[in-house]
Amino acid sequence: MNAKVAAGADRAREMSIFAAVVDTGGFSAAGRGLALTPSAVSRTVDRIEARLGVRLLLRTTRSLTLTPEGQAYLAAARRILADLDEAEQAIADRGVPRGRLRISASHSHGRLSIVPLLGEFARRYEHILVDISLSDTVADIAGGQADVAIRFGPLADSGLTARKVGENRRVIVAAPAYLAQHGTPQVPEDLLDHNCLNFNFRRAEPVWPFVRDGRDYALSVRGNVEANNGETLGQLAAAGVGISRVGEFSVRDDIAAGRLVPLLEAFNPGDVERIHAVFVGGANTPARVRVFVDFLAERLG
Questions:
Q1: Which residues fall within 8 angstroms of residue 198, CB to CB, at 6 or more apart?
Q2: pTM over cut 0.90
Q3: Alpha carbon distance 199, 223 (integer Å)
Q4: Average pLDDT over residues 36-44
Q5: How far apart are CA 262 and CA 244, in angstroms?
Q6: Does position 189 have pLDDT exceeding 90, yes or no?
Q7: Mind listing the pLDDT tens digit for each residue in 238-288?
Q8: Residue 23 main-chain phi, psi, to 5 deg
């Protein structure tokens, strides 16, 4: 160890001892906590005062009082010790990501796309405690309600960092039994004769977008059931209630199993919602957050 490094380590040790004296109110109590003799603690404080050329503590037989210089030194010591702890924790996190990782995701996408991946993530990073909450309420990341949230579509301006981890393509689907009974739409206008299941959070008249001959247009549709998430609409479509237009992730398994059939793909405008992981970014972003976002981009992208 060179002289500068040794001196730095000694001074950090001295700061710890001085802070312990103030916190415990005496040399004996500080020594017990640090496994040092009271005289060793006293000599450390004497050494600091001699080097600085000022009195840091006013000592009586019953009490210790900080001088103004002592107060300034204590504040600086606490700040430096906290910086050292933070630096060491940051390095430790880079070596082995650890700690509680609080994830916020919507009910449908969380259940269908995020939760199935968590087993693999937990096995890969066994020192991270995964804490996931599924809710359609937007978590306040800056306010500390979660470490990372999964969000769809355009994002509001904020000081948060957002990384794209996937896309959600839209698809129109119906059950084979429904099509056998009501016929299969061949062009978008055929939907006017069908029961079209819609989201209930649209304030405007429900319209579905299409493209024909390279030009985009929208068609107003009608139906007798509405819901607030694509998973529910997909289940209703699979049950033969009607035709729905939802995010592909929510009906992927039903399509693969033949319970739902994609419709009008030649007219699909290819519109997609971007899926982002949103978190507090910067140099001090915990490793557990960084590796989780990397993992989502790898598995969902």
A1: 206, 221, 223, 225, 226, 233, 244
A2: no
A3: 10
A4: 93
A5: 10
A6: yes
A7: 999 999 999 999 999 999 999 999 999 999 998 888 999 999 988 778 889
A8: -65, -35
